[in-house]
Amino acid sequence: MNNADSITNTLLKKTYDEVNQCIQCGYCLPACPTYASMENESASPRGRINLVKMAAEGKIDILEDLKEPIDLCLGCRACEVACPVNVPYGSILEHAKEAINDAEVHARKKHTFKDFALNHLFMKPKTMKLSSNMYFLYQKSGLQRVVRATNLSEKLVKKAGKFEKALPKVPSKKYQIQRGQLYEAKTEKTVKTVALFLGCINDAIFYHVNYYTLELLRMSGCDVYVPKEQTCCGALHAHQGQMKHSRQLAKDNLKAFDQYEVDAIITNAGGCGAILREYDQLLIEEFGTEWVRKAEQFTKKIKDISEVLFSLDSLPFSKEIEKVVTYQPSCHLSNIQKAGDYPEKLLKKIPGIKYVELPSKNTCCASGGIYNIQQYDESMKILSKKMNEVNNIQPEIVVTSNPGCLIQMTHGVNTFGKKPSESIHLVELLARACGIEPL
């Protein structure tokens, strides 16, 4: 058996039962943002499932016929919520991406920048720390002002460069959370002991989000551990079919957090929280029952910051935020973590705000990890429709709960917005309302 046949047979073995659960009813079609945008059956969940089935049976080629439709999927998994027979689309998608990656490796197709970023940047906390320091110097040196004034980033890295203007202004490095520390509650009595998952993008660029998360937890009566050896969650690797690396990162994180007795493990990024919640499924094949057991215990503790703050109900709101506010949910927070209502519940508790709901709030903003970079044009079609709704509401603040969504919605405000407004993470708005000084 050659490598190509081995890849096909593996795909068949992993997806046979899953793809045959799909009854092709079409309930997923209205929920799928790419089907709505492209109006093509191969851009729908049921269409992609059928293509995976055909590829697994050797009827079509994995790279020539399956790769493009799969690459055009956002992975928002809204189809799973809509599905009446509970087809595990996310699992099918991951197996398909893994087969595509394996086929590209077999065909010796190279993706130099992507492979470097995934395997030499995100997998190594020290390298991420270095990139954070470089980004800090890039801003403080004045080089960023030159780059933005001349649109140099767009000239050098084309469409990816458009997102440079959506990156945040980083505060002083003294606000970057130190690993291996216990941060004690700021209340007389500790009501909960938790661990904080920092993430890689948040820890490197959006560390003001981590800082606000930590301070809000401490204000609410939580002692917060920050495990030293934690690393990237592995979501970006899984999205690109590099499951071996994703599983290794999962194993590393299980080891890092297993040292602490905590009530919950807190995340503030919907994408990270989603894969952390599915570590038991991620590890079931490679590491066997022992790792699955550890992962099951781990996943039960994963909580989004919004869920924990809402359940504690002890935020010391001290300032009124007299602003019109809307919220773009994180697909992974809503569809996988099933915690999508908590951010809105918290927003409605903030004194002074006028909260206006987006009509199609549950439609993906088309960030999709790095989808907006890899599939820029398709991503912008979906984002422009989202921004039409935002423009009709004319909010002063657009709130998100995931760094990818935050970059995407900031880019949307910059590119399609008709009224000056800002896009911020939920915890930043909560911090303002609790009197935490802006960084």
UniProtKB/TrEMBL annotation:
InterPro entries cross-referenced by the UniProt entry: 4Fe4S_Fe-S-bd, 4Fe4S_Fe_S_CS, Cys_rich_dom, Glc_ox_4Fe-4S, Helical_ferredxn
Q: Where is the 4Fe-4S ferredoxin-type domain?
A: 12-42, 63-95
EC number, as in UniProt: 1.1.99.14
Cofactors: [4Fe-4S] cluster
Cofactor comment = Binds 2 [4Fe-4S] clusters.
Look up keyword Iron-sulfur and say if it applies.
yes
Please write the reaction equations for the catalytic activity of this protein: (R)-lactate + A = pyruvate + AH2; glycolate + A = glyoxylate + AH2
Alphabetized UniProt keyword annotations: 4Fe-4S, Electron transport, Iron, Iron-sulfur, Metal-binding, Oxidoreductase, Repeat, Transport
Q: What is this protein called?
A: Glycolate oxidase iron-sulfur subunit
Question: What is this organism's lineage?
Answer: Bacteria, Bacillati, Bacillota, Bacilli, Bacillales
